[in-house]
Amino acid sequence: MATGKGSGSKLNRLQFKQKLVTSSAKPITTQELLKRLKNLFGEISKTDQEEIETDSLKTVTRELIHNTLLSHKDKGVKAYVACCISDLLRLYAPDAPYTDKELRVTYAEATSSLRKKKTAFWLI
């Protein structure tokens, strides 16, 4: 059954289908990862909570908290990941798609980047 916050009308599914995390044998270049994250952010930031089938968000919800993204060396990747997670929390509200531990780790990574004052949030 589709879940969402809508009032019975047909809910939209996430159109973004690209992988954000791959095996170490075939890694995604930083430039390609930034492109993918920008595309994902562009889609979910324009989506209203009442319009989305939250089941369609499950894959990106899990991938965004993968250690390779949260601890990525590129500041732009970290910035987009933080923005995407923020929008996912908005779309899922009031029910967070993450456990308390996952939220703590994600928040710690995001605030650590901000404290360094070199995070490129202005790129978005």
UniProtKB/TrEMBL annotation:
Cellular component aspect of the GO annotation: chromatin; nucleus
Residues annotated as signal peptide: none
Protein keywords: Nucleus
Top-rank lineage group of the source organism: Eukaryota
Gene Ontology biological-process entries: DNA repair; mitotic sister chromatid cohesion
Subcellular location per the Swiss-Prot or TrEMBL entry: Nucleus
InterPro entries named in the record: Pds5
Name by which UniProt lists this protein: 669_t:CDS:1
Organism, as annotated: Racocetra fulgida
